[in-house]
Amino acid sequence: MAPFKCGPDYIDSQHLARAAGSTVENLDAVMLTQRALEQVFARGCHGRDMALVEGVMGLFDGIEPRRFGGSSYDVAVQLGLPVVAVLNASSCSYTIAALLRGLQSLCQATPLVGAIVNQVASSNHERLIRSALELHTDIPLLGCVPRQSSPLAPSRHLGIATAPEMDENYYETCANLVEQHIDLDALSAIHLTLAPQWQPENTPPATRLCAVARDEAFSFYYQANLRELEERGFALRFFSPLAGETVPEADCIYMGGGYPELHAPRLSAQHDLHQWLRQHSAAGRPLLAECGGMMLLTKGIWDSQGHFHPMAGIFDASCRMTDRRQALGYVRVQEPAALAGLVGHEFHYSVLEDVQKPCAFALEKVTNGKRSQDGFIRDRTVAGYVHFHFGSEPSLLDWLLAEN
């Protein structure tokens, strides 16, 4: 099976990958053109007999209301994906039929072919829901999942706990619930309305080395970004900042987001790591640090208890954790001019403080035009809160790797 996740999500993608035993591709209709989106989907489907795409937020929740651009529905329309609606039945019964009819009335460019209802309180609750759907809709009910006595996965400020933190019992419990309460035969019989088309291309031999941070503190990467690096002739070598690992021979360093704030004391103690990052940056070799990666490159992190943890200090600023979300959504680059129009996504609970030089990126929020400043550029070291997709146009990777 080929698993996919709509939108700029990392945590759900990790869970899908672990549950499916396969890499997961993100399908993003805001950062990617339709052609790029089709290619990501087709490549992920190649050699598989089934595709499962998990949506994001509500079916029509996107960046604009006329055609619901950027929503799960938009992705479904562009890729020819039939829709199965998953509805929460908490504190309602017959109203589920009205909700489903409403979704169906707006789902005009791709078929709504089934429904799954969760948070079902009892067998009687299920009976009420089934009778309402049979009487008032023509949409098959593919399953009713019972309410659980407690959350299956703990949560924190960026969402549920990450996949590496969960034991195998979590996935077994989820699999058992699906097997017992969802009609998998009916689900697997649903067909795409468009056949994905992709021709395999030969990956060039690796002539350069990219060190990619990956451990409990840094794990937020789009699979397509890692693949894009390989297709540009980079061999990937994963290293653990938490363990103080370094890759001095690396031509390029890529540090994604994650939860460095949860491991700040340990990261602060990795002086050899800090020295390597400073030397790599000073040598003018490419270094891209997104969100949590950027936090490691500042002078330090103020944690939620008010303790300061020194970091690499490449940029003369610090980060402070807050108890409120500071940013969420798509932004479009205005400056630097070479990247004007590039769209990325931000989601963070920290702020930059004591910034001693102007930020390098001028941004505009896609949904409301609100302006903001973000990030730093020093030679070929680029760091900021925004996560970018390497398949976007213009390409951040083209710009970062360009020889000066």
TrEMBL record:
InterPro entries: CbiA/CobB_synth (IPR004484), Class_I_gatase-like (IPR029062), GATase_3 (IPR011698), P-loop_NTPase (IPR027417). CDD domains: GATase1_CobB. Keywords: Cobalamin biosynthesis, Glutamine amidotransferase, Ligase. It is an enzyme of class 6 (ligase). The keyword Transmembrane helix does not apply. Residues 211-393 form the CobB/CobQ-like glutamine amidotransferase domain. It comes from the Bacteria. One of its GO terms (biological process) is cobalamin biosynthetic process. Gene3D superfamilies: 3.40.50.880, P-loop containing nucleotide triphosphate hydrolases. Pathway: Cofactor biosynthesis; adenosylcobalamin biosynthesis. GO terms for molecular function: cobyrinic acid a,c-diamide synthase activity; hydrogenobyrinic acid a,c-diamide synthase (glutamine-hydrolysing) activity. Its EC number is 6.3.5.11, 6.3.5.9. PANTHER family: COBYRINATE A,C-DIAMIDE SYNTHASE (PTHR43873). This is Cobyrinic acid a,c-diamide synthase. It comes from Desulfurispira natronophila.
